[in-house]
């Protein structure tokens, strides 16, 4: 069982609006299957769901998007955010998206603490992509993907 | 009123404090904890009137913190602020003695409604 793409989009839009307030919309972006996240500089974060529904929810963000998200969450200028702030904010983003996707799937399940990295995400060989959402925010890319055991 | 906010994310603690202010509850004294274990200690030393706690945290999660508080005889009002708002999680929170569960993403109105239930 995999989450519906429309549900992942709705969750992402809800979280995005809650964190950023009234802002530029998230715009769908056509990306061929199998294409790695292509931002020049990126941040990524993942959280794992285990139990009734096993899966991995991953968020990848262009560095500019990650910095602006962090600044908005902390109510600071974008140039006043450090890497620690960005890691914290991106981790919270995937925690919210992952927690809400978990709530849509059969349980009981457990959500892991998020893991965050500077750079695009790497995926284990024992999972396959079940669902992928490529978006643009103010012209910069972000991706939400869900992987499930192969 | 003194409110203890427990969340391993400093960013989220800031957002909770800001949302309390937006909900008309900005005048309270705030104490912060980075995990459930620290929250447990601070309940004893700071005697807050309300604990607002994340569920998933390192060291000790929110539900274990609440269980430890109740086992120790504490009746402090305790509410979850968590990304997990499923019925199953709400039932677990309720069974453990939580007053409410606010699901992330949240609104100031959700905070106001929840806090009014314990004020």
From TrEMBL, chain A:
Q: Pfam families in the record, alphabetically? A: CheX
**Designated name of the protein:** Uncharacterized protein
The protein's organism comes out as Nocardioides simplex
- According to the entry, what is the taxonomic lineage of the organism? Bacteria, Bacillati, Actinomycetota, Actinomycetes, Propionibacteriales
From TrEMBL, chain B:
**What SUPFAM superfamilies does the record point to?**
CheY-like (SSF52172)
Instruction: Give the GO biological process terms.
Output: phosphorelay signal transduction system
Pfam families recorded = Response_reg
4-aspartylphosphate: residues carrying this PTM = 54
Residue ranges annotated for the Response regulatory domain, each copy included: 2-119
* Coiled-coil region list: none
Give the keywords, sorted.
Phosphoprotein, Receptor
Q: Which PANTHER family match?
A: TWO-COMPONENT RESPONSE REGULATOR, TWO-COMPONENT RESPONSE REGULATOR ARR22
**Name listed for the protein in its UniProt record:** Chemotaxis regulator-transmits chemoreceptor signals to flagelllar motor components CheY
Q: Which organism is it from?
A: Nocardioides simplex (Arthrobacter simplex)
């Amino acid at each position: 069982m995999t989450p519906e793409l429309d549900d992942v989009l709705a969750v992402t839009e809800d979280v995005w609006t809650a964190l950023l307030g009234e802002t530029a919309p998230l715009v769908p972006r056509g990306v061929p299957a199998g294409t790695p996240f292509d931002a020049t500089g990126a941040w990524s974060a993942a959280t794992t769901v285990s139990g009734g529904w096993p899966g991995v929810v991953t968020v990848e963000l262009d560095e500019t998007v990650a910095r602006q998200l962090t600044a908005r969450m902390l109510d600071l200028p974008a140039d006043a955010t450090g890497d620690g702030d960005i890691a914290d904010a991106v981790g919270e983003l995937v925690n919210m998206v992952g927690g809400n996707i978990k709530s849509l799937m059969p349980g009981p399940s457990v959500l892991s603490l998020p893991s965050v990295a500077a750079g695009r995400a790497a995926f284990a060989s024992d999972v396959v992509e079940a669902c992928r959402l490529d978006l643009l925010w103010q012209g910069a890319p972000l991706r939400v993907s869900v992987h499930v055991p192969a | 009123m003194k409110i203890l906010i427990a969340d391993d994310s400093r960013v989220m603690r800031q957002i909770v404090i800001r949302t309390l202010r937006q909900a008309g509850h900005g005048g309270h004294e705030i104490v912060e904890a980075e995990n459930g274990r620290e929250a447990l200690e601070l309940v004893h030393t700071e005697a807050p009137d309300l604990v607002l706690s994340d569920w998933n945290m390192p060291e000790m999660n929110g539900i274990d913190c609440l269980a430890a508080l109740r086992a120790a005889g504490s009746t402090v009002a305790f509410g979850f602020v968590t990304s997990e708002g499923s019925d199953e999680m709400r039932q677990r929170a309720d069974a453990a003695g939580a007053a409410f569960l606010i699901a992330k993403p949240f609104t100031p109105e959700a905070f106001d409604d929840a806090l009014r239930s314990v004020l």
